[in-house]
Amino acid sequence: MQSARLIVNPTTVAIGAKTLIQYKVELRSEDALFVRIEYAVDYVKANGQTSRKLFKLLDKPVNGNVPLVGQRQLNFKDLTTRKHYPGVHQVTLIVNGQSVAQTTLTVIN
């Protein structure tokens, strides 16, 4: 892999709102392979610790000389299966099981 970039915009989000995750992964030209791209969110729990949740972005064979670019909305609306808490949440971009980029976002009430 040559480079990877991960951007979260906005970096401060209220509970119930959404933020946008944008990513770009550039592979070396000789890398024609099967690629799995995921992102992980380390959600802050009620006790202040974090819990990681993985989300799949891409899972297919790709030509190495084409940059892989995409975006995904991240919703901080409370669900029956997940309640959100204020704090600093870490977002990590994972390519073929390797962490390649990370950033943080702040969740507020």
CATH class: Mainly Beta
Strand content: over 45%
- CATH level-4 homologous superfamily: Macroglobulin (MG2) domain
Instruction: State the strand order across the main sheet.
Output: 2-8-7-4-5
CATH fold description = Immunoglobulin-like
The unreliable regions are none
In total, how many beta strands? 8
Mean pLDDT: 91
What radius of gyration results from the CA coordinates? 15 Å
Helix-strand pattern: EEEEEEEE
- The coarse silhouette is elongated
Indicate how many domains the architecture comprises: 1
Structural class: mainly beta
Helix proportion? under 10%
| CATH architecture label | Sandwich
Report the total helices.
0
Most strands sheet: 5 strands, mixed
Structure description:
The chain is an all-beta fold. The chain has a single domain, classed as Macroglobulin (MG2) domain (Immunoglobulin-like, Sandwich). It is 0% helix and 66% strand. The strands form two sheets. The chain has a five-stranded mixed β-sheet, with no helix packed on it. A hairpin with a 2-residue loop joins strand 7 and strand 8. The radius of gyration is 15 Å and the shape is elongated.
In short:
This protein has 109 residues and is mainly β.
Give the secondary structure arrangement, pairings included.
Elements: E1 3-9, E2 12-14, E3 18-26, E4 33-44, E5 50-62, E6 68-75, E7 87-95, E8 98-108
Parallel strand pairs: 2-8
Antiparallel strand pairs: 1-3, 3-6, 4-5, 4-7, 7-8
